[in-house]
Design brief:
Blueprint lengths: L6 E7 L10 E7 L10 E3 L9 E4 L2 E4 L12 E2 L3 H4 L7 E2 L4 E4 L4 E18 L6 E5 L5 E6 L18 E17 L6 E9 L4 H23 L1
Length: 222
């Protein structure tokens, strides 16, 4: 199969503490992909201090590779770079990107609650983690590198190890915290975000919700 074809949708139900709205995520991933939401806000992190981004510990805006702490630029292919006004359009990301490792974290904060997040996710790893928070600072769910459909998870930096990942949540989120407790680091660039849920994702999430409701009802009646 051509590596630039979309990888199938994965639907994940994420449970939170009692009394807190749980989020259900629809996730798609594509090598060389672009955001799936028309009119989403875009951030390519090329400014010195992007307004939606803050850091803690070992997390930074960087350019190029740093083999000493095992971070490498995401790999551009397909339409991603041109969509975000980046260059070159093929090969290693030569612009600023975000690298997180060790005890560090990068936080994406939004002035208004969002339902959609897209990001260029470099060298998707098993320890990569996105933690989603609502406006009351409750954790509503997490997305791990292992949740990304079709990710090689081989720790390499080949063209097919960077994917554009689109995440849609049934529960609105106001903050996303990016962490990588292990090695190598979590690298990402070219974030998109939007308040709306795309119509195809609504259908997927609704169908998954009906399936889960049916399963719960069958267990109660058993």
């Amino acid at each position: 199969m051509n590596k630039y074809l979309s990888i199938s949708i994965a639907s994940i139900l994420v449970f939170s503490a009692p009394g807190i709205a749980k989020a259900q995520f629809s996730i798609t991933a594509q090598v060389g992909g672009v955001p799936t939401v028309s009119g989403a806000s875009l951030e390519n992190f090329n400014e010195p201090s992007p307004s939606i981004l803050t850091f803690s510990g070992s997390a930074y805006l960087v350019t190029g590779p740093n083999y000493g702490v095992a971070y490498l630029p995401p790999y551009f292919s397909g339409s991603t770079a041109a969509f975000f006004g980046e260059s070159p359009t093929y090969g290693s990301d030569s612009s600023q990107y975000v690298a997180v490792w060790g005890n560090g974290s990068a936080t994406l904060s939004f002035a208004t609650p969002q339902h959609y997040l897209g990001l260029l996710w470099g060298t998707v790893g098993t320890g990569d983690r996105l933690t989603f928070y609502d406006s009351a600072n409750n954790v509503i769910g997490t997305v791990l590198g292992t949740d990304v459909p079709g990710a090689p998870l081989d720790g390499l930096n080949n063209p097919n190890d960077t994917l554009y990942v689109n995440i849609t949540s049934t529960t609105a989120f106001s903050r996303v915290v990016v962490t990588e407790p292990a090695s190598p680091s979590f690298e990402f660039d070219d974030v998109a975000y939007a308040q709306v849920i795309p119509e195809p994702a609504i259908s997927v999430l609704f169908s998954a919700g009906l399936f889960i409701l049916g399963f719960v009802l069958r267990r109660k009646s058993a």
